[in-house]
Write a structure and sequence with these properties.
Blueprint lengths: L2 H15 L14 H18 L7 H18 L22 H21 L4 H21 L6 H13 L11
Helix pairs in contact: 1-3, 1-6, 2-3, 2-4, 3-5, 3-6, 4-5
Length: 172
């Protein structure tokens, strides 16, 4: 099993315990997937608003958490054969924080457009989620504050374990 599947399984377990996604059914509720994508987008925006790249690592971890959760809701076990890397060679030149964040915004927007415009959207949407994870993971490695991405994500999961049922006012 891949690290992504291990994380996704644990994230889904915690989120279900906290009341999130337990009645996930996008065929009955057309707004469900766009709401999840909006939450991913909001984490990218929070990373953008951080004072420095190092302070944004937690928000990038939240991007990964939300992508893994949505992917697991769309297709249980999808992440089993996936890795944080994707089938492309990332640009490893001098880090360009603003450009990296703009790419994340673009990928989240593509995910929404896939859902809106493609009838059989699941495979393409899962692909975009994987690209989002790969880029956020790479940014976490590039701008890390002494932690590996999986450490940051495990800390987020542990924090979420202590939060109450439907905490934070999230509607989705």
């Amino acid at each position: 099993m891949s690290i992504l599947q291990e994380l996704a399984t644990e994230i889904r377990e915690v989120n279900a315990k906290n009341g999130w996604g337990v009645d996930f059914n996008p065929t009955q509720n057309r707004d469900e997937i766009p709401s999840y994508i909006a939450l991913i987008h909001s984490e990218i925006t929070e990373a953008w608003q951080a004072q420095s790249p190092r302070e944004a690592i937690r928000e990038l971890g939240d991007v990964v958490v939300r992508c893994l959760d949505l992917g697991e809701l769309l297709q249980t076990g999808y992440w089993a054969e996936c890795s944080p890397e994707f089938a492309f060679t990332p640009d490893r030149r001098e880090a360009a924080w603003a450009s990296d964040l703009m790419n994340l915004h673009g990928f989240a927007s593509q995910a929404l457009e896939i859902y809106r415009k493609v009838d059989d959207y699941a495979a393409l949407l899962l692909n975009r989620l994987h690209v989002l994870i790969a880029h956020a993971w790479l940014m976490m490695e590039r701008y890390h504050a002494g932690q590996q991405p999986e450490q940051v994500i495990y800390e987020i999961i542990q924090k979420n374990r202590t939060r109450g049922y439907r905490h934070g006012g999230r509607r989705t």
